[in-house]
Amino acid sequence: MIQEMNIFKLLAVILWLSIGLNTEAQDFNFKNWPEGKSPKEIGLRIAGKFLKTGHSRFGNTHPKNPPSYITYPDVCTWLGGMWFAEATKNKVLFRGFEDRFTPLFGEEKNLLPKPNHVDNNVFGSVPLELYMQTGKKKYLDLGLHYANTQWETPDDAKPKQKAYADKGYSWQTRIWIDDMFMITAVQAQAFRATKDEKYIIRAAEQMVLYLDKIQLENGLFYHAPQAPFCWGRGNGWMAVGMAELLRVLPKNNTNYEKIMFGYKKMMSTLLRHQTDGGLWRQVIDDDEFWLETSGTAMFTYAMITGVKNGWLNRKTYGASAKKAWLALTEYVNDEDNLREVCAGTNIKNSRAHYIKRPRIVGDLHGQAPLLWCATAFLRK
Question: Are 77 and 50 in contact (CB under 8 A)?
C-alpha cells in the first residue's frame, strides 16, 4: 500500500513538472497565443487598416488637403504589409498592396518622393519588394533608381555631403540613428532583388560608420551626437536596421562580425531595460519617461529576428519578445489603431523635448513595426 502511494506521488510530481516545463516553453516559443492576440490575427487587422486608409500627409495634415508625396511611414507600413502577405501566403492581401501602388505609375505619379533625402530614398524598398514577389521589371527599375541615387552625389550637394561621398559613404549621411533603417533597408532590398554585392557591401560599411561614431559603451545610441538622449524609436530604427542587414549580409563580409557584435550588445542592454509590463520607455534608460509602443515594436522585431536566426538565446530573448508582443496587443484599440505612439521627432538637446512629445493613436510609425513583428513571428 505504501509502495503504491509512493508511485502515485511520483506520477504526480512528474505531471507537475511536465506542466511546468510546458508552461515555461510557451513563454519563449512563438506559439499557443491567447485568442485574438496571435501574430496572424493582429497582422491581418493592421494590414487591412492600412489598405482602407489613404496616404498620410506630412506637413499638409488638414484632412481636406491631398498628400504631397509618399512618406517614409507609409513606406514602412506598405513594406511590412507585403512581408506579412508573403509570410501568410495571402495572395489576395498582396494584390491589395500592389493595387495601391499601381496609380503611382499614372495619375498619382506626382506623389513619388524626390530621391534627395534618406527619408525619401527608402521608398525604393516598396517597388523592390513588388519586383521580388511579381517579377515585373518596372518595379525593379523604379526601386533601383532610389537605391542608386542614394550614392549618386548631386551637383548641389553641400560640402559635408560631398566629404562623406568622397570617402565612399552615401551623400545622405547625417549621423542620425534613424538613417540606419532608411539607408540599409533600401540597399538590402536592392541586394535581395539583384544579388549585386555592391548594395550590401556599401550598406554594411555605412552601418559600421554609424556604429563607430554613435554607439555607446552600453550598446544603446543617442538620437544624434548633439542630442544625447537614448530615444526609443530612434534606437528602434537602429535595432531593425541591424537585424535587416544581418538577415542578408554574407558571413564572409568583412564587416559582418562587427555589426553582429554591435547588434548583440544593443540587445543585451535592451533586455535589462524592458519594463515589468513588457514595453520599453520613450527614452529607454530614464525611468521617468512614459511607455512607448513604436520603439517597443521595433525592439521586439529585432529580437524575434535574432531568435529565429539563432543569433540570440531562444529562451531568454524569445520570452522577452513574446512578453513585449502580448503587451503591445493590449494597446491596439477596437479601430485597429496602436496607441501611445510617439509623434515624429527631430533631434534636440533637451530632455523636456522628448518627454513632452505628443502620443498619437494609429500613427504609421507604430502600425508599421507591429506588422513587422507579426511577419517575423510567422517567417519560417
Answer: yes
CB atoms under 10 Å from CB of 59, counted, come to 8
Structure-block grid coordinates of residue 286: 530614464
DSSP state of 124: G
Query: What is the distance between the alpha carbons of residues 121 and 113, in angstroms, rounded to a whole number?
Result: 8
CB neighbour list of residue 142: distance below 8 Å, 6 or more residues apart? 124, 127
How far apart, in whole angstroms, are the C-alpha atoms of residue 219 and residue 268? 8
Question: Which residues does residue 360 pair with via DSSP β-bridges, in sequence order?
Answer: 341
Cell of 367: 502600425
pLDDT of residue 56: 86
pLDDT of 377: 97
254-279 pLDDT, tens per residue?
Answer: 999 999 999 999 999 999 999 999 99
Q: Which residues of the chain have pLDDT under 70?
A: 1-27, 58-64
Beta pairing partners, 281: 291
The domain total for the chain is 1
Convert 270-286 into a string of H (helix), E (strand) and C (coil): HHHHCCCCCCEECECCC
Closest CA to 342 of 322, 365, 315, 374: 365
CA 242, CA 255: separation in Å to the nearest integer?
A: 12
User: Residue 39: which domain range?
Assistant: 33-378
**Scanning the structure block, which residue is given the C-alpha cell 520607455?**
281
Q: What does each C-alpha distance from 84 to 89, 233, 280, 332 come to in angstroms?
A: 8, 21, 24, 18
Asked if the structure places residue 309 within a domain, the reply is yes
Closest CA to 270 of 194, 199, 202, 215: 215
Q: Residue 169 and residue 150: Cα distance in Å, rounded?
A: 9
Each residue's pLDDT tens digit, 306-362: 999 999 999 999 999 999 999 999 999 999 999 999 999 999 999 999 999 999 999
Strand 280-281 and strand 359-360: pairing? unpaired
Residue 296 sits in a domain whose CATH number is 1.50.10.10
* Residue 10, domain member (yes or no): no
Q: Strand (E) positions, the chain? A: 280-281, 291-292, 341-342, 359-360
Determine the pLDDT at residue 66. Answer: 77
How many CB atoms are located within 10 Å of the residue 276 CB? 7
The pLDDT value recorded for residue 59 is 53
Tell me the C-alpha distance between 125 and 190, whole Å.
8
